[in-house]
Amino acid sequence: MTSAVQPEKILRELTKLWVDLGHEEGVLRACAMTLIVACEGSNDVEEAGEALAELMREHPSRAIVLRVLNEEEPKLESRVFAQCWMPFGRRQQICCDQIEISATKSRLSDVYSAMLGLTVPDLPVILWLRCGKLIKMPEFQPLLHIARSVIIDSSTLPSATEALALLETAHNEGWRVKDLAWTRITRWREIVAQTFENPAMRARAIKTITVRHSGDKVPAEAYYAGAWLAARLPDAKLLFAPAISELNCGLQGLLFEGPDFHVSITPSSASALDIMVDTFTGHVVLPELAPWQLVEEELSILGNDPVYECTIHQASALARSPQ
């Protein structure tokens, strides 16, 4: 089955939808950006829809969900609807456009043409790749050029080395890259900064940094943590080591050592870290963040993230170097 997805037709359907909604009292149409969400499989589309329902509360957008079908027969279909919610204590519903497009790989060029007419003029366009391998698909490449910012989770790719190289290349070519693997270690970085903010701690000589990780291969989160620390402690020796037990994300612990000096940060559960400074211990509770919450953090940073932009190059170089 094939059909045409024409932006003019979709926009007419949206207009009709809003005329119908306008007959209801207290409906406000809101839009601050175009958020394109690329998925594979029906389960992923359902999860994307649930994530968008949460994201729209803080980041109202025209959401375009693109489902890439792994089918031989060419197919291109679309439908429109509104995503609505009522803020607590209010009597007015807030609603956003949502467009769902299903397309086989052979029809992605037609999707690109349609997308050009569906993004909201003069507002940011963000592309969230829920399936990391889409960034490598030749048929998908034109769609990358629609968005200035691309959100991806490098942990969804089989190789951290390949993933970081792809993201570094994308950054060098002008895209504003946002990796959820980097977002996952934000609180680790905050805790490290807080641990060493005391002048007496900063005066200590750190000779070795050990980054502990899950699995036999070093994941992207560990490379990011190592690169971020190496930039701030260039004289310390950086090591990667697999963890005995695995909790939390791909990053499983940080160990800082020097003469008569020992600091360790390790997960004690999926939502808590133990901090040991010499013989003193502390405990920090971390919120367990769903993927949509990580995306929400990145959507709050519409401009450049200079810390990440510096770290991605170093992380990619670490991934390429022999461990």
Count helical runs. Answer: 11
Tell the overall outline: elongated
Give average pLDDT, whole number: 88
Question: How are helices and strands ordered from N to C?
Answer: HEEHEEEHEHEHEHHHEHEEEEEHH
* Structural class determined from secondary elements: alpha/beta
Q: How big is the Rg?
A: 22 Å
Straight-line N-to-C gap: 51 Å
* Proportion in β-strands: 25-35%
How many β-strand runs?
A: 14
Total of domains? 2
The profile of the biggest β sheet is: 8 strands, mixed
Low-pLDDT windows of residues: none
Helix content: 25-40%
Can you give a write-up of this model?
This protein has 323 residues and is α/β, with parallel strands linked by helices. It folds into two domains: 7-147, no CATH class; 184-285. It is built from eleven helices and 14 strands. It has helices at 7-22, 42-58, 108-118, 141-144, 160-172, 180-184, 186-195, 199-202, 220-232, 291-299, 306-320; strands at 27-29, 34-40, 62-69, 76-85, 93-104, 125-129, 149-152, 176-179, 208-213, 237-242, 251-258, 261-269, 272-277, 280-285. Strands 1, 2, 3, 4, 5, 6, 7 and 8 form an eight-stranded mixed β-sheet that branches. The chain has a six-stranded mixed β-sheet with strand order 10-9-11-12-13-14, covered by helices on one side. Helix 5 (160-172) links the parallel strand 7 and strand 8 (176-179). Helix 5 packs across helix 11 and helix 9 packs across helix 11 (306-320). The longest helix is centred in the N-terminal third of the chain and has 17 residues, at 42-58. 36% of the residues are buried.
